[in-house]
Specification:
By secondary structure, the protein is α/β, with parallel strands linked by helices. It contains 20 helices and 14 strands.
Length: 558
Amino acid sequence: MRSDIIKKGYTKAPHRSLLRATGLRDEDFDKPFIGVANSFIEIIPGHFYLNKFSQIIKDEIRKNGCVSFEFNCIGVDDGIAMGHEGMLYSLPSRELIANSVETVMNAHSLDALICIPNCDKIVPGMIMGALRVNVPTVFISGGPMAAGVDKDSGEALDLNSVFEGVGAFEVGKIDEKKLKMLECESCPGGGSCSGMFTANSMNSLCEAMGIALVGNGTILALTPEREELARAAARRICQIALDDKFKIKNILNKKAIRNAFVCDMAMGGSSNTILHMLAISREAGCALDIKELNEISKNIAHIAKVAPSLPSVHMQDIARAGGITAILNEISKRDNGMLELDNLTVTGEMMSERVKNHKVADYNIIKSVDKPYSKVGGLAILFGNLAEQGCVIKAAGIVGERKFSGKAICFNSQDEAISGISSGKVQKGDVVVIRYEGPKGGPGMQEMLSPTSLIMGRGLGADVALITDGRFSGATRGLSIGHVSPEAAEGGMIGLLKDGDIIDIDVDSYSINVRLSDDEIKKRKKEWKYEGKKVSSRWLRQYQRLVTNASNGAILDA
């Protein structure tokens, strides 16, 4: 056993003495030691109950002849951190989480790992840490939140309903009473926010990659079904704890990463998944070039729309319609060679065996490949003189035309943009430019849900585009383009734009350009001066110096 290094032989008497202090007995030293990475934190709705959730998992581990050692990782609630300086810490938290998992697991030479994430950066952070450790690993998330219900109309609600409600309130479309109702009813209980936002996107991709059990992405939080899934995950980690065949890198490989992107395209997941999967691919030792993603997008139909792309559909509806495995099964009927079904899963079967018996139960929710929402995927990477290394759009969330030209209205921070949009500076036909919010410039690459929601709430969603070197919440919809690389802080083209520049966007041709001559661009590059913010935080300054741009996954490169 890997853990023998801390528990076997006479020289390890001091180590055993310390372990005995935690409650271990003689018989425990012959059992596998399993790390339980828990992201319990009381301020995040998807996490406040994970202390009780982990008790269920640890109980099952003990019943199955193993020893569990729980440790905790930090977490940031992106919704609560949104729209103020707190968001600067969100993406950097991914690296802290990865470092924490690696540190605890390797410092104590634990044999296997079960990860309990749920929201946003916590899922990819744990995956990245697990890949560095490379022991048998199972992921079991806390599960998605149920959708809220509008008391007046009976329509489904989610967090995005509240953000867009703020914009609607500002222009007098709704009154204070309506806004209060949205506030109180949109998030009815524990779980990761109910739509296809970043958390549920990543938890669904864990299924598609085979590192989680069937149902991980869709079975609701705080239900008996979720508890049984947790127990099954705990039993499985005990079964494979000492089997090198199930080291996570044997499952999460290049094939698994491709399957994740196929699922992502089929569902129109959060644009953040691109950022995280690029980082994960590098940790897995099979770095993916962002240019490869459009090849997947061109060949995979978009067959499932979930809020915010379709506000009436949430993860509970996807579960009822057959779940992630049903989506993959349907896609397999016409995958154009993109799916890698001959890849191992953590439950021991090949992906082909996992999905073959999972049929779509409701074609109103999950479309057939013959009648999809779109013949191409729900995410796209655009290139051009404005983004030489690429930028990302959640094409599934577009509410107007897929081709757009307009004049730039430039803001050097998210705060400036929020003020400008709220004051009416942004009009129909404009392209909102928010820069110096990339990994280096932010630093930390803030999410832009507040400005995009204000645009939607003010009724401009189909008539205004937004581009940024920052990123978006999974709740973002509209013609919103993020992750522009190179970013402004690197001297990228987005930092050279001026008010009035004409920007051309064509999603179907995967292009984004500004109408400037080569000579004018050269001139502006010579004249460019950094106009980003100064950073006082020691941690954020460290992050700023080490982080790469979004097209490289915003990983730390030391």
